[in-house]
Predict the structure of L-histidine carboxy-lyase (Histamine-forming).
Amino acid sequence: MTQIDGRPSEQTIERTREEPVIPAQQSWSPAPQQLSLTDEEFELGPNGVPPDKRFRALNRLAAFLEDKRDHMLGYQVTEDMDAYQEDLSRFMKMHCNNLGDPFQAGGYKVNTKPLERAVLKYFTKLWHGIPYKAGKKDSCWGYGLSMGATEGNLYAMWNARDYLEGKRLLSSGDTLKIQPLSYVAPMAAEGKDHAYEPVIFYSQDTHYSFAKAIRVLKLPTFGQMGRDRYPNDCPLGGEWPDEVPSALPPKTGKDDQYPSFGPGSIDVDKLVVLVKFFAEKGYPIIVNLNYGSTFKCAYDDVRAVSDRLITVFGDNGLISRDVEYEGGGSEKRRGFWIHVDGALGAGYMPFLDMAAKDPKYGYEPEVDIPEFDFGLKSTYDSGLPGEKPVNVDMVSSIALSGHKWMGAPWPCGILVTKVKYQMQPPGQAEYIGSLDTTFAGSRNGFSPIVMWDHLAQHPDDRQISKAVHSQRMAAYLVEKLKMVEKYWRNKNEDDTLDLFIDRTPLAITVRFRRPNPDIVAKYSLSTVTMRMIPDDDTSIRHLAHAFCMSFTTQDRIDTFALDLCGDDAFDFDETTPTPQPSPRFDAGVPMAQSPFADRGFA
Ligand SMILES: Cc1ncc(COP(=O)(O)O)c(C=O)c1O
């Protein structure tokens, strides 16, 4: 395969476009030879590795990683590390560990909890929440994640499950006549068989961390619960789906009406129908909404979902209910939980919103910036005489990856929820000198320094220009891909050749036909083989996507576009699935049903 030899000049691509849209730049510099590492270079033994070999191995590793970083387009990580190395290398000389609750000092003093708290406060305010104050139930509590948003999602689902199962709240204090620090369940609610059996809803475009989290937590999806208990009653008709269908594409007459052709956001009407079915039977409800979905970077309409579901929750006694404990004592709490998986989008969309609201940035979004955070309130009006409408804060938790929008040398992130939802931890680890309210034992104390340093170096103005830049780069990539498509149509004298170019409104990712494996590897593209129409093998498409993060430049996109014009850049005859075994496993990669069932994108 020749990416260099077969490639036309930038001018050739230029000539193929109909109208000048965005001026192309002079961009090409020959790519370095593709490097690869072998396991043998890094093998360890009882004698260690001699210094010369060790340096050579580390140099090779650095060269490999730098090359991959410099071509990265496929994943939603920021590779621009600002000045972390200069600012922070001195902290590599100690072991920072934020054991225990971030708002309690704890016994291990080599920690960075003040910075962790500063980061949590920053995002709490950005997301229109009330910063943490001990005992203030509506204030926001959270912690810095040692993993990424996966941990945040898992923790949120754990919290949601225990909260809705009626387990004891941290804030109950001594008000209940039950053993403090014990992990108790409520008494069965009379006449309400399902009052403590939460059911979870999330869309087809949801990240695979949810499928894992609910398996770990033994949380039933509505699909499982439906199949087990109400096999013939799916309110959408037919079989119970595993996930809430994603929205259909706008009716342009061009695309088929299947979610795989749609924007990737949740189908709000279908979600409401499904939630209503279970709420009416008394089940408490967990809904996950995506804010920047993994493949299409779609934003679920958190406002529309909240405004529609509040009536379902209110009509079925889920806005406030009594949880009673054996031996006396009861508490009031809600019977629903809305989690926002903002792994990517919660990091930059608030800044895009600021840009859209201030003419000085000259940014006009193609659609309104969707609301998603703790500021979102919906009103329930029972319509009953004497009852006043109530305003309800709808979002219970938000997870964010630190390495995605902000950029960090390793996975990290934050989870923010509210004091009023915090559960009593299963036991108190006196050993760590603070409540064991987080997920792990040891917690990464370096990540808060990295996130703090990024935020300290990025006043709002700078964040806003980065967010707007990403939008512009995504629009630019679409234009470039269209030029590449035109080039191939001209070259093959075939006007039907399709690169399947698509971009969801406000997305910073663009999807397109999968190029050859060398290009996929060069730019670390992530790919998926997908049936666009369920069970129809003739509808199979091989797709890839590229992310325009804040460090993405026109140069990089231009270089990429040139590679896509190489002689063997695409196999246009590729019609059958080619699941590729990974080098380590013999099993094939399962093909996705529309739109995203193999969860193949990190
Ligand atoms: C929507 C969404 N949620 C969760 C995750 C998982 O995040 P992390 O890799 O930080 O664990 C991702 C990762 O791509 C994602 O796109």
User: Anything to note?
Assistant: The longest helix spans residues 460-492. The mean pLDDT is 87. DSSP finds 14 helices and 13 strands in the chain. The radius of gyration is 26 Å.
